[in-house]
């Protein structure tokens, strides 16, 4: 029996929710024929009360429809080809949802989830330049989850895919054909803003966006050299309680950040600011890209490759 891939595992987790959640409207461009969103929607099913609907090319309308269903107390899930296309729906996602937050009690909301691919495997045309989910979290101020491993994917989809409220769940196209990352989480926060995968006293390693595989690979190198670290993954959840990771940083005195997004602002900067403001004596090594050069918008591999030797030297430095 072949091992599950990253994408087949995630679709299986979605189907577990859609088979039991009652009436749900699942929609997107090419969701039920052709490439089925590059394989994202292949094998997708709903229960008899639900519906899968192919729709035309109008992201502003797509987001408005989902928010309308949320307002009516229903359940909707929009599947999208790439994060870039959500820019076309930002007016609805920001302004319409701000109106809902201001004037409609949360107890009356239904559920709206945007399930979207992030193009992060190299150049795929001019509309494949955005890979930073944190930017959208900042603009809309809603939870955004980046699915990295089998454990966090199962937990996030089960607890949030059809729950009341509005959120975005992002998938890494680079990992679609890779085996599902079968690394159990030792602990996770109630809101799934934090997952801890490894424990140690020498350093704190924090993954953001889709850098968990890289973080665990780095941790394997560190363990081979006798260095043991706490390894966390952070999602973009407004008002998240970061106590666990902040306490880890204060205990180890060394923070290594890995963020494969190409955004200028980083969610991990919150950690650095919190530690600085509290007067914590913590050294920081950041493997983070800050935006793009002009030449990065053409054909390129776009591969995030943190330096393991540099991390080891940083942690061992007195």
Automatic annotation (TrEMBL):
Q: Which Gene3D superfamilies match?
A: 3.40.50.920, 3.40.50.970
**InterPro entries per the record?**
THDP-binding (IPR029061), Transketo_C/PFOR_II (IPR009014)
- Which protein is depicted? Transketolase-like pyrimidine-binding domain-containing protein
Species this chain originates from: marine metagenome
